[in-house]
């Protein structure tokens, strides 16, 4: 399974980011989410969804081997993570985030909450395991 | 612990630079909920009687509600409250977008702005960091341009409100702008911001909000999204948004046309929701956490140029299109863009331009006075007027005062067709054969605005159907009989409590009003967010309290305030509608009095429209009753 963004369907409501923070942190806080909606205004007047496609660049870059593939998602092992933030720099889509209230960088866990809430079908889960 | 709320009030005195953060008082949250309720109570408590709206002593209050920023449908609403430069009385205006949630994530439910900055400034808020910074570089910029520039400077994840030149120059109908096309448009809040030398507020927050039952809210919030998506209006209403009502309003003869001379626009099919989709739209543009985005963002090409613009939504179509007789949706979108950049409310700007055009047609305003010929349907003339108004240059200085003051100065019968109540220009529903809607306009606390009670559906269909149900069942196909005048008060009062309740909660009413998403959903979501178990009826009681309080504020602040301030302009009680579905209809002055008599009695106000002491006490406003008695 993978997340896919269909940009032209997005209306910028950011419900995905709220659902992400609730699903992963039990918090109502879109700053603690693993995806980002960019509004490109006034021109060209559209939205871009920035999300993790589980490419694994973060795992390759991690000097501690703290990011491992579990059921199709690269997951940070909090016990091994030293907070060096190398992964954030390595992420080609800039969708890993630092947050003062999070012990490790924030990264997509492929939980699917964003795709489930999106009323526009702009973020979808697709593909097999 | 106050669940749902960020928990603090941020107060900035722009004169002294003093910044204070205080806990949100629990009794304020309990008795007034949030948003509009906060605004009403704080204005009553903290504005000294007789304060000039443009003086440093006036306040501009930005308030969210407990549900703003949470995972509930359309939780992006933010309220702006002040003493109105348009009416001199109570004012609040709200907008969608993302600003309110960001303010809460930064830690603040309410931002209170007082004083006047020594020079052009903007307020920077990033969590606990609050700074007044120079806006010299942005002063004079368009509202959209200023937002774009500030985003480039600060980052895309800042949420920003700005004013345009109209706000800087104290145009009485200047708006507060946000997110490249959302506005707190009404009541002149942008002019108050300008009077404080404040060009913008930029906010970014990284904190979370306390939730009474986060697990439960996650589950029920997702479920609420599913329920909204299952409503017929999700597929039927959302694609065109508010512009989709244009056909129906014309077919029931309520579309303000030629400065409200008539109520039907023959070319309405060229400026409806379908036309917006076919000729303008690039993307749907939603507010925070909204499953049903009514915003349509697009590009319009006209003889005057090509522009990116959000809209036009229905009200802009009605006032810039109908009232000023622009025949194409591209022209309306262009006029919309000009207003957005200048920071003019499209409703009032359209009404003011339409009044000026009629004055010109009747020879009351001359080419010499105006500086050029102006006529209905002429986009170039409208743009000329808007630019003059925003700069308060020449004729613009007169028009920047709004139709009430301008017509009093010009005279010669122009007051009869200055379409306003209390000094606020009329929005998009001509009501000579819609007595409920007429009463709603007459008694709306901010002046002639539809967004306190939209009673037109009740006038036409006699039911509480959702807007989607109304428009999908179609308008009329011929002449309409004269509507019954009696028995309107009860429904108008009910509606005046419902929409403003959403304004207290900090969420959009659209899923409820337009799509028919049921009230009990909100009881449950409110409980999960706040931990307070309140029935819909109990929530509406708070809305009623706020309604009496805003009336009391205007009684206190406006000399001689009362019944005389509740009448519409003479056009509506003297001139029959000349053509269209409501040809021949109008309301006599006696009928207007019947509407008011029934309304005041049902409200518990005296014959002059002043809340009685008993009514105020019953509503939990004993201190307000005491204060009004002392002032008598």
Fold topology:
The complex is a heterodimer of chains A (129) and B (632).
Chain A: E1 2-5, H1 15-25, E2 36-40, E3 46-50, H2 57-61, E4 67-70, E5 73-76, H3 86-90, H4 113-117, E6 123-126
Chain B: E1 8-13, E2 18-23, H1 26-32, H2 35-46, E3 60-63, E4 78-83, E5 90-95, H3 99-105, E6 110-114, E7 121-126, E8 129-134, H4 143-154, E9 159-162, H5 165-168, E10 176-178, E11 182-184, H6 189-195, E12 198-204, H7 214-230, H8 232-236, H9 246-251, H10 273-279, E13 281-285, E14 295-302, E15 305-310, H11 314-323, H12 329-342, H13 346-361, H14 367-370, H15 379-391, H16 395-399, H17 402-410, E16 420-421, E17 424-425, H18 435-443, H19 456-461, H20 467-472, H21 489-505, H22 510-513, H23 519-530, H24 536-557, H25 571-574, H26 589-603, H27 613-618, H28 622-631
Helix pairs in contact in B: 1-2, 2-21, 2-24, 7-23, 11-12, 11-13, 12-15, 18-21, 18-26, 21-24, 21-26
């Amino acid at each position: 399974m993978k997340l896919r963004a269909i940009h032209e369907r997005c209306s910028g409501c950011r419900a995905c980011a709220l659902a992400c923070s609730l699903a992963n942190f039990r918090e109502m806080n879109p700053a603690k989410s693993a995806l980002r909606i960019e509004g490109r205004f006034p021109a060209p007047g559209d939205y871009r969804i920035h999300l993790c496609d589980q490419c694994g660049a973060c795992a390759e870059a991690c000097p501690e081997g703290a990011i491992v593939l579990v059921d199709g998602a690269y997951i940070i092992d909090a016990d091994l993570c030293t907070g060096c933030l190398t992964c954030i720099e390595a992420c080609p889509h800039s969708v890993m985030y630092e947050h003062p209230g999070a012990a490790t960088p924030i990264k997509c866990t492929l939980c699917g909450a964003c795709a489930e809430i999106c009323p526009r079908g702009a973020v979808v889960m697709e593909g097999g395991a | 612990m106050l669940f749902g709320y960020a928990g603090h009030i941020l107060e900035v005195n722009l004169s002294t630079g003093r910044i204070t953060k205080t806990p949100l008082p629990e009794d304020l949250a309990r008795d007034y909920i949030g948003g509009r309720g906060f605004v009403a109570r704080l204005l009553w408590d903290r504005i000294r009687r007789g304060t000039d709206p443009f003086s440093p002593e006036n306040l501009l209050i930005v308030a969210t509600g407990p549900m703003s920023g949470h995972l509930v449908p359309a939780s992006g609403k933010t309220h702006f409250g002040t003493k109105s430069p348009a009416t001199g009385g109570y004012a609040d205006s709200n907008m969608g977008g993302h600003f309110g949630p960001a303010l809460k994530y930064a830690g603040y439910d309410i931002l209170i702005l007082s004083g006047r900055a020594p020079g052009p400034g903007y307020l920077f808020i990033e969590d606990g960091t609050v700074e007044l910074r120079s806006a010299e570089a942005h002063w004079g910029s368009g509202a959209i341009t200023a937002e774009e520039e500030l985003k480039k400077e600060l980052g895309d994840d800042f949420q920003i409100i700005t004013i345009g030149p109209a706000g800087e120059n104290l145009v009485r109908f200047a708006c507060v702008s946000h997110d490249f096309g959302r506005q707190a448009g009404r009541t002149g809040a942008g002019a108050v911001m300008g009077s404080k030398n404040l060009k913008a507020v930029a906010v970014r927050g990284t904190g979370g909000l306390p939730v009474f039952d986060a697990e439960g809210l996650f589950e029920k919030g997702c479920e609420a999204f599913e329920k909204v998506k299952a409503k017929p209006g999700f597929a039927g209403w959302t694609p065109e948004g508010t512009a989709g009502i244009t056909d129906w309003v014309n077919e029931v003869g309520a579309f303000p046309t030629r400065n409200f001379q008539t109520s039907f626009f023959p070319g309405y099919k060229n400026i409806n929701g379908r036309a917006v989709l076919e000729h303008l739209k690039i993307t749907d543009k939603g507010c925070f956490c909204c499953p049903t985005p009514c915003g349509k963002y697009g590009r319009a090409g006209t003889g005057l140029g090509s522009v990116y613009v959000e809209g036009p939504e229905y009200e802009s179509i009605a006032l810039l299109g109908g009232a000023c007789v622009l025949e194409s949706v591209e022209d309306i979108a262009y006029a919309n863009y000009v207003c957005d950049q200048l920071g003019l409310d499209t409703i009032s700007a359209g009404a003011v331009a339409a009044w000026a055009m009629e004055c010109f047609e009747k020879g009351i305003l001359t080419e010499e006075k105006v500086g050029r010929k102006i006529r209905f349907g002429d986009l170039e003339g409208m743009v000329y007027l808007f630019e003059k108004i925003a700069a308060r240059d020449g004729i613009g200085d007169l028009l920047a005062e709004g139709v009430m003051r301008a017509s009093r100065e010009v005279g010669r019968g122009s007051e009869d067709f200055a379409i306003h109540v209390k000094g606020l220009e009329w929005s998009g529903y001509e009501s000579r054969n819609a007595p409920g809607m007429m009463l709603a306009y007459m008694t709306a606390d901010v002046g002639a605005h539809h967004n306190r009670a939209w009673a037109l559906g009740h006038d036409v269909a006699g039911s509480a159907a959702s807007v989607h149900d109304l428009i999908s069942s179609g308008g009329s196909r011929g002449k309409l009989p004269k509507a019954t005048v009696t028995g309107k008060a009860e429904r108008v009062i009910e509606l005046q409590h419902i929409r403003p309740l959403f304004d207290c909660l900090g969420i959009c009413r659209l899923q409820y009003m337009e799509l028919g998403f049921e009230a009990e959903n909100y009881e449950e979501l409110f409980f999960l967010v706040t931990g307070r178990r309140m029935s819909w009826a109990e929530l509406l009681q708070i809305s009623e309290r706020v309604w009496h309080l805003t009336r009391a504020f205007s009684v206190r602040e406006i000399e001689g305030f009362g019944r005389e301030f509740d009448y519409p302009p003479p056009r509506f009680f003297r001139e029959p509608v000349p053509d269209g579905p409501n040809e021949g209809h109008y309301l006599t002055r006696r009928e207007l009095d019947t509407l008011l008599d029934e309304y005041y009695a049902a409200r518990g106000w005296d014959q002059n429209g002043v809340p009685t002491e008993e009514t105020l006490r019953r509503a939990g406003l004993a201190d307000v009753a005491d204060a009004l008695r002392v002032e008598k």
